[in-house]
Design goal:
alpha/beta, 8 helices, 26% strand, globular
């Protein structure tokens, strides 16, 4: 019953009771993944950083705290209009100050300039993309040469959820995402196991080769 209600909302929460429940679920379950994705990016004060599928904005908040330089800039995209609204409210002061820019956008067609982003991170995101290679190609386009992409996930949870038909086909499998990254211009693609606050999770790293 729970997954029948919340499952369809996971990839694109809407302004509804189910969407609100999903937002609360994402906040609770993703905090460790978001915090570690930000930390593992190695964000520098003047970097331009992009979060994909930012959801309710936990990762945005964590990244913004590190962009203390005058040139530091934070970008975010989410194709859920509801999540875009929630995060815009959460980050409104930094948006007004010109430090943060959020886009209601699909990862496959981002309104971001070529070779303009130093670091990209995302959490529990790629398995909702209809076309992995279109997504990874677009990420590669916006990244600067040798820019770092980091994604965090809990493989154990994905294996449990996948049979409930929440995802499209087999795109949830990390190896499929890593193959898409390698096919669209990324190098040094690897996955590592990490543990934080007694939670074991996986991290995929990739470097934009240009």
């Amino acid at each position: 019953m729970f997954f029948k209600t919340v499952g369809p909302q996971l990839g694109r929460p809407t302004l509804s009771v189910a969407g609100w429940l999903t937002s609360k679920l994402l906040t609770w379950r993703n905090r460790v993944l978001e915090e570690n994705a930000v930390k593992l990016c190695g964000i520098l004060p003047d970097d331009t950083v992009l979060e994909l599928g930012h959801g309710p904005g936990l990762g945005l908040e964590a990244a913004a705290q590190l962009l203390t330089g005058p040139k530091g800039k934070l970008l975010g995209i989410d194709y859920s209009e509801y999540m875009h609204q929630v995060s815009s409210k959460r980050m409104q002061q930094l948006i007004a100050a010109g430090k943060v820019t959020l886009h209601h956008s699909d990862v496959a067609s981002m309104p971001i300039a070529d070779s303009s982003v130093d670091k990209v991170f995302h959490c529990n995101c790629y398995y909702f993309w209809p076309d992995l290679k279109r997504g990874t190609s677009e990420i590669h386009r916006v990244m600067k040469p040798c820019g770092l992409m980091v994604t965090t996930l809990r493989l154990e949870s994905l294996v449990q959820i996948a049979p409930k038909n929440v995802f499209t086909g087999e795109s949830w499998r990390p190896e499929d995402y890593m193959q898409a990254l390698e096919a669209t211009g990324f190098c040094n693609v690897r996955m590592e196991d990490r543990t934080d606050k007694q939670i074991t999770f996986q991290v995929i790293f990739a470097t934009a080769s240009k």
